[in-house]
Amino acid sequence: MESNEMHLESMKKAVKNIHIADHMLYVTYPVIKDKRLLLKVLDQVYDAVVYIINAVLQQDYILKRIKLYSDPKANFQTFMEKSSKNYNITSDEVKEVAELVSLYESHKKSPMEFSRRDKIVIMSNSLKTSIIDSEKLKKYLNLSKNLAGKAKLGMAV
């Protein structure tokens, strides 16, 4: 695949993940009420945001606005400091992306997760807890939709 098509492929994958997460959160979850589904929604939203960030970075690299690195954390830093501004992504949205990434990483590294009422509690090795509920996931889903819209607009897709 040519490098100038990679960002379009990333955007397609992001949109697909957003649709899946949206359906799971607004259609499937209210019917079956299985808390584990919330973790699947988190995975889908996280993947969508990662695809959007990749698309933005690839597009900026093609336009010679940035350098890309083999270190994903360095590329994420480049997105937060430089690329986000090129696509009118606000500092609040950048903070929410960082929160989402942090929540996802704590979920992946967590030795223990359990449900309490309508929430999933993620416990870290240091006994610090993070909470996932449908409202928080709706916020992150809306964030991913906004980012996708801004990325498409910036790329004129």
SSE topology:
Layout lengths: L2 H30 L3 H27 L9 H15 L4 H19 L2 E5 L2 E5 L5 E5 H22 L2
Helix pairs in contact: 1-2, 1-5, 2-3, 2-4, 2-5
Mind explaining what this structure looks like?
A 3-stranded antiparallel sheet has the order 1-2-3. Strand 2 and strand 3 form a beta hairpin. The radius of gyration is 16 Å and the shape is globular. The two termini are 18 Å apart. It has 157 residues and is mainly alpha-helical. It has a domain of 108 residues. The protein contains 5 helices and 3 strands, in the order H-H-H-H-E-E-E-H.
Based on the model shown, name its key terms.
157 residues, mainly alpha, 5 helices
Largest beta-sheet details: 3 strands, antiparallel
Average pLDDT reading: 93
Q: Which value, in Å, is the CA radius of gyration?
A: 16 Å
Oligomer: single chain
Q: Extract low-pLDDT stretches.
A: none
Strand arrangement within the widest β-sheet reads 1-2-3
Q: Give the class from helix and strand content and strand pairing.
A: mainly alpha
Query: What series of H and E elements makes up the topology?
Result: HHHHEEEH
Give the % helix.
Answer: over 70%
Strand content: 5-15%
